[in-house]
């Protein structure tokens, strides 16, 4: 397989292959909906990355041998680590669930449903 030599095909050749298919421009409403869905998807990605960063930055360090020497009971250090870890995970999970799952995801789904319902119904969207 020769991957170094790329062949450029003219648009007329491509359209000659699919001569039976009519290409129609996408209506303005669907283009706007697609841009809005893209924006909401980007916001979802930013919030998700923020929640992951919050989790990583607030997650406590695992107890080391030096820390275990300071506690008379090693189980107390491990239990304290578990509690602090649960608090960090809970705050990131609550942030994600409140913003993404309950607010942005239904909007995103509604926008995509509108876009695909309009394209599937054959109407012009205006």
Secondary structure blueprint with pairings:
Layout lengths: L10 H7 L10 H31 L6 H6 L3 H48 L5
Helix pairs in contact: 2-4
Question: Overview of this structure, please?
Answer:
This protein has 126 residues and is mainly alpha-helical. The protein has one domain (26-121). 73% of the residues lie in helices and 0% in strands. It has helices at residues 11-17, 28-58, 65-70, 74-121. The radius of gyration is 26 Å and the shape is elongated. It starts with 10 loop residues before the first helix and ends in a 5-residue tail after the last helix. The relative contact order is 0.14. The model has no long low-confidence stretch (mean pLDDT 82).
- SSE sequence, one letter per element: HHHH
The average pLDDT value, as a whole number, equals 82
Percent of residues in helices: over 70%
**What is the strand tally?**
0
The fraction of residues in strands falls at: under 5%
Count of separate DSSP helical elements: 4
Tell me, briefly, the overall form. elongated
- Ends: how far apart? 48 Å
Gyration radius (Cα, Å) is 26 Å
Category from helices, strands and their pairing = mainly alpha
Give the biggest sheet: none
Total domain modules: 1
From the structure provided, what is the oligomeric state, counting identical versus distinct chains? single chain
Q: Could you name the ranges where pLDDT drops below 50 across 5 or more consecutive residues?
A: none
Highlighted features:
4 helices, mainly alpha, 126 residues, single chain
């Amino acid at each position: 397989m020769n991957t170094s030599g790329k062949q450029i095909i003219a648009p007329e050749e491509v359209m000659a292959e699919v001569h039976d298919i009519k290409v129609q421009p996408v209506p303005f409403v669907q283009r706007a909906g697609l841009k809005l869905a893209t924006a909401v998807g980007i916001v979802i990605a930013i919030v998700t990355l923020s929640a992951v960063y919050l989790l990583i930055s607030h997650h406590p360090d695992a107890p080391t041998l030096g820390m275990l020497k300071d506690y008379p009971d090693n189980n107390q250090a491990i239990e304290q680590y578990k509690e602090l870890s649960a608090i960090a995970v809970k705050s990131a999970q609550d942030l994600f669930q409140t913003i993404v799952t309950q607010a942005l995801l239904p909007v995103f789904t509604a926008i995509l449903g509108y876009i695909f319902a309009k394209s599937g119904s054959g109407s012009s969207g205006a």
